[in-house]
Amino acid sequence: MIFEQFAAGGCQSYLVGCEKHCVAVLIDPEISLVDRYTAAAARDGLRILYLIDTHTHADHFSATQQLAKRLSVPIVMYRSSPAPFVNLRLDDGEMLAVGDLRFKVMHTPGHTKDSMCLLVEDRVFSGDTLLIGGTGRTDLPSGDPDELYDSLFNRLLLLDPATKVYPAHDYQGRSHTTIGAELTSNPRLQRRKREEFVTMMRNLELNMPTHLTEALRTNMSGGKSVAQMLTEASEAVPFMSLEELKAQCELPANNLIILDVRERDAYQQGHIPGARLLPRGQLELRVNEDLPDPTQRILVYCELGRISTLATATLRQMGFDRATALDGGMKSWREAGYPVQSGIE
Ligand SMILES: [Fe+2]
Questions:
Q1: Does the keyword S-adenosyl-L-methionine apply (predicted)?
Q2: What is the CB-side half-sphere exposure of residue 222 using CA atoms within 13 A?
Q3: CA distances from 342 to 223, 262, 320 (A)
Q4: The CATH number, out of the four listed (3.40.250.10, 3.65.10.10, 3.30.230.10, 1.10.8.60), of the domain defined by the range 228-335
Q5: Model confidence band, residue 255 (pLDDT cutoffs 50, 70, 90)
Q6: How far is the CA of 81 from the centre of ligand 1 (A)?
Q7: 53, 178, 314, 339: least buried by Cβ within 10 Å?
Q8: Start-end ranges of CATH 3.40.250.10 in the chain?
Q9: How far apart are CA 324 and CA 341, in angstroms?
Q10: How far apart are the CA of 11 and the centre of ligand 1, in A?
Q11: How many Å lie between the centroid of ligand 1 and the Cα of residue 40?
């Protein structure tokens, strides 16, 4: 078995492959590691066959859709997953064949209704059902402490105590544990009576994960996160540095249109000398009037450099082939002590 574990901000993901047949799966891939996964698979001579999410993640962004598009391979989840883009839905007891490896599904609801664990050879990928020294929380959408009790005590913990456990999260840099070690030392598993366990889970009072709504929105719908929108836009446009823009402004004659896409009041308080105002919210509405010549060179800026990147990508999609985004924004322009003009256009 070829096995590699990846960590990103407490999220654990796994590349697991069959050496003989040069095929592999990715389990719980995270969006920031997309290039690392594909690079690792290429380095190991593995073709990724399946992208598996052990459950609907509420606390991080799944990379399954991006990788599915890039690699043209199916996304695999438990049968009841609410995500519409799942290509292969598995039921309890079913297996995925990956070369000589067999990944067996164990439906373990509790953290979410669609949670599953995957058993292969000497190990189990436990998702957020069982963590090292902890368990998945049960207070997020579709969580249920009663179901988690059954999934743990009447299913997962009945596995051979020597079974290695690889969870979807660990915030302390640990790689894995075993069923036996967790039975002995996991504090939550010492509450072996259902009522005690359920009461404890109901009273954990954990903070809501950051990006909860955005993670659920994107992981359940197939939509993009704000970070993805920005990454894609920044890959589609060229940038100009603050220094270069300042030098361009100082030229006696230049035909660069400097476009301020912030709101009117921000523009009035201070803008780059010579800049025109075209707020992002009005871009598509006013573009034909305000920018009649699509061959002109346009430099777009905003306050921080993010909205301007999106606006530049939009302009390029509309045919403004020389639209460029400022690498930075008005904030860094002011901080650099560069000239600022105030007042209306
Ligand atoms: Fe989770």
A1: no
A2: 12
A3: 39, 14, 28
A4: 3.40.250.10
A5: confident
A6: 13
A7: 339
A8: 228-335
A9: 21
A10: 9
A11: 24
